Amino acid sequence: MELQTFLKSRMPLFRGLEDRQIEALASICVPADYPKGRTIFLEGSQAQGLYVVMSGQVKIFKLSLEGREQIIHIYGPGEPFGEVPVFEGGRFPANAEATADSRVLFVPRDGLRRLLENDSTLAMNMLAALSRKLRRFTVKLENLTLKETPQRVAAYLLDLSDRSGGAAEVTLDISKGHLAGLLGTAQETLSRVLKRLSEAGLIRVRGKHIDILDPDGLQAVSDGDDRL
Amino acid sequence: MELQTFLKSRMPLFRGLEDRQIEALASICVPADYPKGRTIFLEGSQAQGLYVVMSGQVKIFKLSLEGREQIIHIYGPGEPFGEVPVFEGGRFPANAEATADSRVLFVPRDGLRRLLENDSTLAMNMLAALSRKLRRFTVKLENLTLKETPQRVAAYLLDLSDRSGGAAEVTLDISKGHLAGLLGTAQETLSRVLKRLSEAGLIRVRGKHIDILDPDGLQAVSDGDDRL
DNA sequence: ATTCCAGCTTGATCCAGGTCAAGGCGCGCG
DNA sequence: CGCGCGCCTTGACCTGGATCAAGCTGGAAT
Q1: pLDDT tens profile A10-28
Q2: How far is the CA of B198 from the C1' of D6 (A)?
Q3: CA dist A223 to A46, A214, A218, B203, Å?
Q4: Which residues of B133-158 are buried (b: 16+ CB within 10 A; e: fewer)?
Q5: Is the distance from CB of A92 to CB of A84 less than 8 angstroms?
Q6: DSSP B175
Q7: DSSP state of B118
Q8: Together in a domain, A42 and A113
Q9: Rounded distance, CA B137 to CA A58, Å?
């Protein structure tokens, strides 16, 4: 079955499970399609389970009263989201919205908890997954509070490059508006920073494609070197 | 035994465990004393286990290259910290230091993992604990990126009051310098904000004791009302 | 009691970056 | 082919809050 293959091969969370566990899991999951822009859940609403991106892209974000948006994370295929209320509190701590046409797997809370209680492999995987998210939060908090915007942009680009094996050309998988939201800045500021980095000869921007001309220089900016 | 009593009664993490599990746990834990100002672990160092505050106070924080400090959390008695590397990565994502003379329980990684694999109650407790931390991170990120300093201060005071049952007088359990670090601002700014809140008749500050004179007004400030 | 000092307050200055406003640019669609 | 609409860039301005620089204060140590 299609779904079982996905669970086994594409999802670190379910790595190492026995086939009959995968079957049990597959039998309780429900896939659903969300068009770009559609809300998946709202902050504060009651959760019935968690979600996994199968295809497309989902943003998790907070809104201020004035409407400013802080993106907490953007998830792609294979990544779970909305786990918190499964284990604590029952309500979502933030909002989720599809940023592209997406297929999303829903995993009901009760069934998942039953599986977790009987399978320590799954439980350890889940503990690792939550720990990874805590680690990312730490990094994000550090970036947002201890780094200036150019540092954050440089760090983001380097991270993107690293994750594609140190490639000299990276492709933004999200719009620049979303990137600004993710980096905790205004779109205008991001635009200006990219320009400055270009003028300094560190990068070249062509739409969503960015050439990293000087990785070391970019690293220096990321580390706080004020060369502009 | 003293230690077992502490584990059973003072720690949500170990709530609901059977006595023989508690015994097993107690037998692998090691308490240690840290004077005020002593480092407990450094970011990036290899972790051998997690910690639990028995008495005193511990701050978890990040440092920028220039030496600015962002406090991520401050933990008191009963609260665990440093869990992340037990389940993922192996290295601490931030620094920990005692902010008061403290007794801290060390729980070795391997023993803990063995217990977790054999006891789903403990595993579910741990999942809940990590989820609670993720939720707090979400709130913290929201406060730091979407709220201005006066809003953060007001929110902190109200939270403090709520946690002591809505008391009209709250006592800061940390120094104002640390509070500034926790709220992502400079000590000078915090001082000025407290003064403004006092002059607006919302609070009265006497050292570490703060009277909340106008909870509704404070709530309004916390929600972004620009009354100063 | 006097000194000392960490912790706090107050004042003055400066700047990163948010906001408002006005175009460009590219692309899908009629 | 050109119209319209997101999305992005550029410019001008303004402000929250960081930083630098003095004092102040209260309690611990002698």
Answers
A1: 788 888 778 888 888 888 9
A2: 47
A3: 41, 14, 9, 41
A4: bbbebbebbbbbbbbebbbbbbbbbb
A5: yes
A6: -
A7: H
A8: yes
A9: 19
Q: Which residue is nearest to nucleotide C17 (CA to C1')?
A: A189
Helix (H, G, I), strand (E, B) or coil at B166: coil
Note whether residue A142 is domain-resident: no
Q: Note whether B109 contacts A: Cβ–Cβ < 8 A.
A: no
Structure-block tokens of residue B112 = 């803990």
* pLDDT, tens digit, 9 for 90 and up, residues A25-42: 888 999 999 988 899 999
Q: In this structure, is residue B152 part of a structural domain?
A: yes
DSSP notation for B29-61: -EEEEE-TT-EEE-TTPBPSEEEEEEES-EEEE
In-domain check, residue B142: no
Task: Identify the domain boundary among A78, A100, A134.
Answer: A134
How long is the CA A134 to C1' D21 vector, in angstroms?
40
Residues B77 and B154 in one domain: no
Looking at B134, B159, B185, the residue that finishes a domain is: B134
DSSP class of residue A45? P
- B57, B102 Cβ separation under 8 angstroms: yes
Mutation site for B-interface testing, chosen from A41, A50, A71, A138 by largest number of B Cβ within 10 Å: A138
B195 CB inside 7 Å of strand C: yes
> Position A206: which residue type?
R
Report whether pLDDT(A1) > 60.
no
Q: Which nucleotide is nearest to A194 (CA to C1')?
A: D9
Indicate yes or no: pTM above 0.70. Answer: yes
